[in-house]
Amino acid sequence: MSALNLLVRGLDGNATQLNFFARRLLMAGFTGRNQKIAMKHVEELRDYGVVAPKKIPSFYAVPNHLVSTATELEVLGKKTSGEVEPVLLFQRGQSYLGVGSDHTDRELEKTSIAKSKVMCGKILAPEVWSYRDVKDRWDELVLRSWIGHSRKKTVYQEAPLGTFLRPEKLIRLARSYLRGGNLEGTVLFLGTIPIVGSGFGFSEIFSGELIDKARKRQLCFSYRIKTMNWLKGDF
C-alpha cells in the first residue's frame, strides 16, 4: 500500500489534509468520448511501432507503490515520456479529482503496453479537488501539459475533459474490471489526450495542469526526468 499526503482544495480556497492510502493503481487507456479522437492516440502509438489493444477503452493494473507526488523521476533508458491525465481517487465513500502523468517506457511499449507501464513511476499533483465540486462542469475543465522549462517550455498536449468519456461511465467500466467492483483505495488514471503536433516528446522536464477557468483555479505538477546514466552500457 502506498501512502499519499495530499491537500483537498475547496471552492473557498481553503485546503484540508488528505492521507490517502493507495491500495490499487489502475491506468485507463483510449478513453476518448469521440471515437476519432481516441483512434488518433491509437494511431500515434502505431506510428511508433506499438501494437494497439484490440478493445478500447482498456485498463492496465500497475503496482500501487509506483504512484507518488515526487518532483524527480528516475528512469532506465532515454526513450521515456510523460502524458497528462485526469485522475480519480476513491476513499471512505468520497471521490477526488486530481491530475497526473502516466510516465511510460516507449521502447518497451512497442512490445507490451502493460509491461511498459510498470517500468516508470506515475506522478500525481499534490493537491486534489472534491469530485462533487466539479462534476457538473467536467466538460469545461481543461487538461494541458508542457515539455521543457523556462524559455524552451512548449505546449505538448491540450484539450477539455469533454473529449473524454463521461467519468460515470469510466467508473462503471473500472468497477467491472476489478474483482468485486470495489474502488476503495483505488487511484484511477483516466487516459490521456493527443499530442500537439506529432511524435513523442523526450524531455528532461514534464509539467501538467488541470484548469477550472470558471473558478480561476488549477491543479498542477512538474517533475524532472533523470536517466540512470551511472550504469555501464547502453539502455
Keywords:
235 residues, alpha+beta, Fumarylacetoacetate hydrolase, domain 2, 10-stranded mixed β-sheet, 5-stranded mixed β-sheet, 41% strand, globular
Overview of this structure, please?
The chain is of the alpha+beta class and 235 residues long. It has one domain: Fumarylacetoacetate hydrolase, domain 2 (Alpha-Beta Complex). Helix content is 16%, strand content 41%. It has helices at 35-47, 106-109, 113-117, 131-134, 167-177; strands at 2-9, 15-22, 24-29, 58-62, 67-68, 72-75, 80-81, 84-91, 94-102, 104-105, 122-124, 127-130, 142-147, 154-160, 186-189, 205-212, 217-227. Strand 13 (142-147) and strand 14 (154-160) form a beta hairpin. The longest helix has 13 residues, at 35-47.
Write a short abstract of this structure.
The protein is α+β, with helices and mostly antiparallel strands and 235 residues long. It has five helices and 17 strands.
Write the layout of secondary structure elements.
Blueprint: E1 2-9, E2 15-22, E3 24-29, H1 35-47, E4 58-62, E5 67-68, E6 72-75, E7 80-81, E8 84-91, E9 94-102, E10 104-105, H2 106-109, H3 113-117, E11 122-124, E12 127-130, H4 131-134, E13 142-147, E14 154-160, H5 167-177, E15 186-189, E16 205-212, E17 217-227
Parallel strand pairs: 1-12, 3-15, 5-11, 6-17
Antiparallel strand pairs: 1-2, 3-4, 7-10, 8-9, 8-15, 9-11, 9-12, 13-14, 13-16, 16-17
